[in-house]
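Ticket #4471: complex job returned nothing on first submit. Input attached below:
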Amino acid sequence: MATLELVNITKKFGDFTAVENINLRVEEGEFVTLLGPSGCGKSTILNMIAGLEEVTSGEIYINGKQVNRLSPFERDVAMVFQNYALYPHMTVEENIGFSLQLRKRPKNEIQAKVRKVAAMLELERFQHRLPRELSGGQQQRVAIGRAVIREPSIFLFDEPFSNLDAALRIKTRGEIKELHQRLGVTSVFVTHDQEEALSLSDRIAVLRMGQLEQYGSPEEIYSKPATKYVARFIGTPQMDMFAGEFVNDGGLYYQVGSAKVAVSDTLQAPGVSVDIGVRAEFVTLGAKGFDATVRLVQPVGPFTYVTVAWDDGSVTARVNGVSRLKPKENIKVEINPKELLFFDRATEKRLNP
Amino acid sequence: MQSSNDYNRNRYHLGLWFTAPAIIVLLIVLAYPIAASLILSFLRVRFAGQGLDFEFYGFTNYADLLKNQLFREALFRSVYFTVVEVAGVIFLALIAALMLNHPLGRHAFFRVVLLVPWALSPVANAVLWKWIYNANYGILNQAIIGLGLTQENIIWLGSPWLALNMILLADVWKAVPFIALLILAGLQNIPSYLYKAARLDGANTWQQFVHVTLPGLKTTLVISIVLQSIWALKVFDLIYVLTKGSPADSTVLLNYLSWRETFSNLDVGYGAAIANVLFVLMFMLALVYIRALRPRRIKAKDG
Amino acid sequence: MPRYLTRFFIRFGLATFTLLSLGPVIWSVVTSLLPLSALTSRPPDLNPLNITLENYSLVLDSSRGLFSGLINSFIIATFTSAVGLVVGSMAAYALARLNLPGSNKLLLMILATQMFPGIVIAIPLFLVMSRTHLVDTHFGLIAVYLSFILPIVIWILKGFFESVPMELERAAAVDGASPIQTFRYIVLPISLPPLFATGVFAFIEAWNEFFFAIILTRINVKTASIAIAEFSGQYQTLYGQMLASAVLASVPVVALAIIFRRFILEGFVEGAIKA
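Support reply: We reran it on our side without changes. The output follows.
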């Protein structure tokens, strides 16, 4: 178990800056996710933490000790790779025990430890099989076993679920969470799936084009996104944004086309142009509010997402259960003014009104 | 400030150690001789007693080459040989590859058939054809006389133009398998959905061949042409075994000429000069090869 | 064209192709099994009862040099491919994975070495080797053979090593393997098939080589190729023996090619294209 600190980490490939000035600290036992779309630099950062990629500038500290010059093994980190990277010519047993074999541990010690890990991951029956004889989920567990047996200070996960189908993903997600609760090892997890990040992490680092957009707990990231990008990246469905103008007409409103969006009565119009965003669960359809027409109705089991539009905008509302609304119907839209999020149109940062 | 960790530094060092043996060997048996060959061609080398006598000769060797009729004829013959061989090999190999690509030809047996001529040594190939071409008892003569095409034995390796072309035939026979395999690999790299799309667009078999197969084979064909040209220029074993250059030096090609000048006529500098001319020819072909393999920039399409 | 007609033409084509490819070879084998009298009668006497092994036994008579030629070829081909594999695989791995600067240029140079005539290097090498008494030695010939075998080995193996997923080597590094350990425990075991195939290919190339052999050997290291060339010169009217010697010298390589055909076909043909 260890703390991890990245100080001013930058990575350049020739002229191309992949990662720029990343500062973050992971506490002992925390599960932190690096979240972002492809190409945002999250895997690069992970590889730098592991020691597989050289740092262009900046320092990495594990437990307070600078590790830039140390090899991956010396840093006492273990990694679960995206494609599992199991040694194809070795059995499950040999795969898991390889790191111990390299350190020339006695055979019975290796056997005992491998058996224990295999039992924990429900792999006892497969110990003598080769990777190609296993299913995707089983292979992944072997990859995890290979990391677990090292008893490392830090676990690193590089998008380990991307090769699994949807149902298996969710199941394995639960297993990882249980594993973390059980072993309590400091973990850094990379993914592009924001749901995954929200469900697994103690804190999330949202990355965009090599830069850190926000670093905080799932609740913070969800309800108090620091930038427009974070607001739109997190949450299903994507947060709707409006561009409009403030109007004082017997009370302050935000005018979007013909729609008047009520704002909280304590609000004073901010001095800059803003975009306003709101989550679907705070949009109500019914008899009160401004006029709109139903455009799309998408049931997803426990909810239905209904998208409505008016002359200058559209918004999606979350309706409990099944909705009887149909496209082209007219409806009135009400948005909870306390849940509006304001973003400076120029800097894209969130304002606290 | 770049920080480099042990892992990456170790890899770099290991890389140096790992390539060192190969580089050393190649420097000795490849780099040095190439350089030496260039120098030798500017010298006049004579065998004096036990050793060699080197005398600076400038470009005289090269000048002599151009004046020498035998050299010019050998050059011409080499070019002829190469062009005809490449054309013949590509044509036959393409047909063979197309047949082998067809469902009927997918059997492993045909792959084995291809490998047999390829695996033979060029000398064994030469011996084989020497026997077939034998004027008195060779099967070629027996066959054409038996079929009533002529009355008398043809001395295949006896008349100048004929001998050269019989050597050509023997080399083509041996060369087709490898190129056929190359083209076959190229054919199998053409995605089948292109053919399906063409069929849906109404193309018949010939049109599919012209508009899907041939364009898809472009790189493969270029590679085949260059490789086969280089190999055609290297022909030696066949000449040595079948004709040794006769009749009347009519089957002397550049490679053989260089060897003969150096090791039979002992004019080392002159032989080296011929070798270098051959080298330049092949080098230019190699450049074409390398350029053909460079990834092409995607041309923007209109519309 | 109606399908049955296409199929007919293809069948016909395949049959012709097989006949033309194997015909000369089969005829050679048949010839080698017939006595001279049968071969010199017109038309040749193909009565199966004439089959004899006398050509082979005469050809293997030690004074004719074929037997020692086969031994020499075996020694040379084995050592050439062994050394070529060891040295070449290390260099290929370094070029594929070990971050060497200038590896692209090195690679192009290696490719270029395939494309020039042996005579260019044969002349200077002969001069040097005569002075250092390396002419007509096994060592000398093996060294010279490496000049064209090494580049091919490096070229083919580099392609294979590059196709080993980088993740595997990273996993090994995280597990604590040094680069050498990664090479020895992970990369090499996975690459056994292409290593083997490349070794076989190198063996075949070395065995079949003739040009350097006649320049750089005299009496002691006569290879099989030289022996059969002599047969076609000296004893050329002994047709059966001439062909028996060619068949004997070809059997090993043809057999190897057939046995390892899948490796060879997948291996270097793709290598030539992937370049």
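The radius of gyration of chain C is 23 Å. Closing as resolved unless it happens again.
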